[in-house]
């Protein structure tokens, strides 16, 4: 049932091109328009929403952090992202004009369920982004957008994450369409790019051997740090989470701009630091800043593992290891940039003799608060 793979996680990583294609299936027509009929929340409610709050846990929370960039950029609706376990304990401000998005692979995560119950009690509309048909979270929500990733068996979430991102991008575009805030060339270009993203993920998967070799060479390390900016920041958090849960290593993700506010003190000789570099296109300020960050940490001895787009030559002099990903629009980059981090963590777990599909102390779905 592992389809020839040693672990479900490897199989699920490999299934990602198909999973993202399945999430798009039937939701974009030939002219590039979206038809999200499942979003059974009336357009009037979507038009009047004045705030979006995303609630989720773990990897799904990281998908939410990335979704915020897309939602705010395409819809201009303020969006907060909150850990479901924290949400209801701070008496959040909610009402009929709040749209809550609950993201969950399993649809059974108790923290997320309690957060959405609380939101509905306050009159908010709740839309679930979920992978498991008929599970509790979609049943208790006003509407659901299924991710169609297929069953995810490995405890570490991989294909569910990528499809959560795709579903959130579609939702953000849909909201932009309904509210008339965005239907320009940029959005059409994004839709076209989303349609190609499966092939790009496939290309990334074909080039992962050096990443595996690198992971094996780092099996004796205690700590790995991850840095990113903009949407690369949640990608860094996700890379660190994967490493914690699979390799049982100390791993932390930081916003690269925070380095000088503390974390740079951690840098020492030969410390592996993974840096997710944003596209050099368009957002050159962001790109240049991260190139300086790479220089800063390397000058202090870090072993830099740089994830950068094909054709980005500026990073080459400062990369001890360079991992190439295809050029994609900035907001979509997490779909390709996360894949090497999944492979990296899976290989490190194997090299350290850990149980990949069933990491210690963890359960696939966390049904207690
Ligand atoms: O089923 P859910 O998406 O609600 O689960 C949320 C988290 O428990 C989950 O993403 C967890 O963080 C994963 N094991 C991470 O790989």
From TrEMBL:
Active site: 364 (for fru-6p isomerization activity)
Molecular function as annotated in GO: glutamine-fructose-6-phosphate transaminase (isomerizing) activity
Annotated EC: 2.6.1.16
Subcellular compartments: Cytoplasm
Keywords assigned by UniProt, alphabetized: Aminotransferase, Cytoplasm, Glutamine amidotransferase, Repeat, Transferase
Catalytic activity line of the entry: D-fructose 6-phosphate + L-glutamine = D-glucosamine 6-phosphate + L-glutamate
Top class in the EC scheme: transferase
Limits of the SIS domain: 41-181, 214-359
Assembly: Homodimer.
Protein task: Catalyzes the first step in hexosamine metabolism, converting fructose-6P into glucosamine-6P using glutamine as a nitrogen source.
The protein's name in its UniProt record: Glutamine--fructose-6-phosphate aminotransferase [isomerizing]
Organism: Streptomyces bikiniensis
Whole sequence portion shown: 247 to 615 of 615
């Amino acid at each position: 049932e592992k389809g020839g793979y040693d672990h479900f996680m490897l199989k699920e990583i490999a299934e990602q091109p198909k999973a993202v294609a399945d999430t798009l299936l039937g939701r974009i027509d030939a002219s590039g328009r979206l038809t999200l009929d499942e979003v059974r929340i009336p357009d009037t409610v979507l038009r009047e929403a004045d705030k979006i709050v995303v609630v989720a846990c773990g990897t799904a929370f990281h998908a939410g952090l990335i979704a915020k960039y897309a939602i705010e950029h395409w819809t201009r609706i303020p969006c907060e992202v909150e850990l479901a376990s924290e949400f209801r304990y701070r008496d959040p401000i909610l009402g009929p004009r709040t749209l809550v998005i609950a993201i969950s692979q399993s649809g059974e995560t108790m923290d997320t369920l309690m957060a959405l119950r609380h939101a509905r009690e306050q009159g908010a509309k709740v839309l679930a982004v979920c992978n498991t048909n008929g599970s509790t979270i979609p049943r208790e929500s006003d509407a659901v957008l299924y991710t169609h990733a297929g069953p995810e068996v490995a405890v570490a979430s991989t294909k569910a994450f990528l499809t959560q991102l795709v579903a959130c991008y579609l939702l953000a575009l849909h909201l932009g369409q309904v509210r008339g805030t965005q239907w320009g060339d940029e959005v059409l270009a994004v839709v076209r790019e989303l349609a190609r993203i499966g092939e790009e993920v496939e290309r990334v998967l074909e080039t992962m051997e050096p990443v595996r070799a690198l992971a094996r060479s780092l099996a004796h390390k205690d700590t790995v740090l991850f840095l990113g900016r903009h949407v690369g920041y949640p990608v860094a958090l996700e890379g660190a989470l994967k490493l914690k849960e699979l390799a049982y290593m100390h791993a932390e993700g930081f916003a690269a701009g925070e380095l000088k506010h503390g974390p740079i003190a951690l840098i020492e000789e030969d410390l592996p630091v993974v840096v997710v570099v944003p596209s050099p296109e368009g957002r050159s300020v962001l790109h240049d800043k991260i190139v300086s960050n790479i220089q800063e940490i390397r000058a202090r001895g870090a072993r830099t593992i740089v994830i950068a787009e094909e054709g980005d030559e500026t990073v080459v002099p400062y990369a001890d290891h360079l991992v190439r990903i295809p050029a994609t629009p900035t907001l979509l980059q997490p779909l390709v940039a996360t894949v090497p981090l999944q492979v990296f963590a899976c290989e490190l777990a194997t090299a350290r003799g850990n149980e990949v599909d069933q990491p210690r102390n963890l359960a696939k779905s966390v049904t207690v608060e």
